[in-house]
Amino acid sequence: MKNEEKFLHWADEKEVISSNRPVKFLLLLLVHVPTCLVLLLIYPVSFFYLICSKRARTEARLYQKQLKEFTHGKSPRVISPFLQILSFSLCVLEKIVGWLGKVTYDKLVCHDDDLQELIQMLEKKQGAVLIGSHLGNIELLRSLFSFNRTGVSREVPISVIMELKSTEQFNKTIREVNPKAGFNVIDPKSIGPDTMIALDEQVKNGGLVVFTADRTSANVRTRSVRLPFLGKEADFPYGVFLLTVLLNAPTYFVFALRTKTSTLNPRYNIFVERARTSLSCTRSERDGCIRSLCREFVEKLEKYCREFPYQWYNFYNFWLLSDNKGA
Q1: Most buried pick, 103, 110, 196, 205, via CB within 10 A?
Q2: Where are the domains of the chain?
Q3: Poorest-confidence range of 5-9, 207-211, 254-258?
């Protein structure tokens, strides 16, 4: 994109699902029709969306071209906005299926990473911070926690720090499906000293605090961490990493990714990797600590973008920079 192009923050984009009627229709189908048949309907719907949404086509192609250049042509295999839109449509469906309680722990493909360490910590009532993204479907994990299907023998308290504005209609319908979907969801703009004390207590009592870290704040847009992502500078949310450092708890990067771009019998890779950055720092060292933690996150995000190139659901120009120079 040209430098003179006007910066448009992701929160200024229209919500992809601007009415709750499509989601309610999907919900009705899932209740009365076998899930595999509903999955088949996703294909023509995705194709229709591809034809009608120039924005989705443009932004998917932009991201995939940047990724292909970064990987020297190795990933993605082909530049295909359709595959990315199809994957997004399946993700929306899977979120609803998750909140209906139809996803079980045996649908998860676990790996030889830090997942077992996290499970053992939670068993001992030791809490943690999880950092995820809009790559894949981290909300799938949240729905599993609500049904206590996590491999942990106890119910784990969980607080999710989530920007609500961009998915208002979708979230409203999901709460109708399962009221637990709105439980302990905190909008970042409401966070103050009392909230931080409550989050700190939750972690100390064996709970989880969950962030997504690939979108800058809708409310505080002038502060970010600017780092190369897929070979080009991008802004990441300073506040997420600041709050993580202030909580000073064991921190894990978490990704939930479908094993295949499309499948009628989906299974989900769960990747859990512990952050190696030390969060114990003095006030003067804090900015360096925040930047180091953010850099770790960006490296993980790049790693899984390479492996799952069509499961990226940021449909806006990720590399358009704000006027802020970054931290």
Answers
A1: 103
A2: 10-307
A3: 5-9
